[in-house]
Amino acid sequence: MTAGPTAFLRDADETESFAKALGILCKGGERFALSGEMGAGKTTFVRGLASGLGIESHEISSPTFTLIHEHEGRSEGAHSPRCLVHVDAYRLEDPSELDELGWSDILQQRHNVVVVEWPQKISGSFGESVVEMELFHVASESDGLAGREIIFNSTLPDELRRQLFTSCRTCQRELHAGISSFPFCGNTCRMADLGNWFDGNYSVSREIEEDDLYDSDLS
Ligand SMILES: [Zn+2]
């Protein structure tokens, strides 16, 4: 796998919010190959992705004997409803089993967002433009605390990359979606940004409205 952007996710909550941010950005037609050892957070990740697609997260279970789970999402914002197709290929004996389950139709449906766990089991059956990602247990570089890391291969579309991986609006430190202070590295930078607004350091072409403040996630 070609190394692309990586995100350190401190715990299950951050993993879920990162995946939720990804789900919100999906338009339909996305394909994700999700690798990672047992317990690395794959189910948490799929739950977050589902949530971003407007699907109740309790609908997402950890691996079962069902190979393909389909979940209808709600229509949200500018999106028409998208459907999450969650494939757990762990118990798949042969990729041809997928054909019997209507796999090629599933891939053709434009509103489907498809995520496959244990993608190596279906290699060759997932078509092109698949975003590969892998979850690892790691320790944080800054404080040594345990967490997990998600690594994308370089096919992550630019649009998704720009929105998920950005820099702090105040200090320009690199950061990623999923952290509670996003798009700031922390509360200090968030408050500094707010201070700039109140001091009039930003030139704006109109009066600041209450909504502008809430847009920066202060609610
Ligand atoms: Zn900052």
Please, could you describe this protein's structure?
This protein has 219 residues and is of the alpha/beta class. The chain has 2 domains: 6-154, Rossmann fold (3-Layer(aba) Sandwich), CATH 3.40.50; 165-219, Erythroid Transcription Factor GATA-1, Chain A (2-Layer Sandwich), CATH 3.30.50. Helix content is 28%, strand content 22%. It contains 7 helices and 9 strands, in the order E-H-E-H-E-E-H-H-E-E-E-H-E-E-H-H. It has helices at 12-25, 42-52, 96-100, 103-108, 158-164, 187-198, 210-215; strands at residues 6-9, 31-36, 68-72, 83-88, 112-117, 131-139, 146-152, 165-167, 174-176. It has a 7-stranded mixed β-sheet. Strands 8-9 form a two-stranded antiparallel sheet. Strand 6 (131-139) and strand 7 (146-152) form a beta hairpin. Helix 1 packs across helix 2 (42-52). The longest helix has 14 residues, at 12-25. The chain is globular and about 65 Å long. The termini are far apart. The structure holds zinc ion. Zinc ion (ZN) binds next to loops.
Name its key features.
219 residues, alpha/beta, Rossmann fold, Erythroid Transcription Factor GATA-1, Chain A, 7-stranded mixed beta sheet, 7 helices, 28% helix, binds zinc ion
Bound ligands: zinc ion
Reading off the top of the CATH hierarchy, the class of the largest domain is best stated as: Alpha Beta
Segments where pLDDT lies below 50 for 5+ residues? none
DSSP helix count?
A: 7
* Number of discrete domains: 2
N-to-C SSE series? Answer: EHEHEEHHEEEHEEHH
Helix/strand/pairing class, anyone? alpha/beta
Here the CATH topology of the largest domain equals: Rossmann fold
The number of E-state strands comes to 9
Largest sheet: 7 strands, mixed
What would the principal axes of the Cα set say about the shape? globular
SS strand fraction = 15-25%
**Which homologous superfamily in CATH is the superfamily of the largest domain?**
P-loop containing nucleotide triphosphate hydrolases
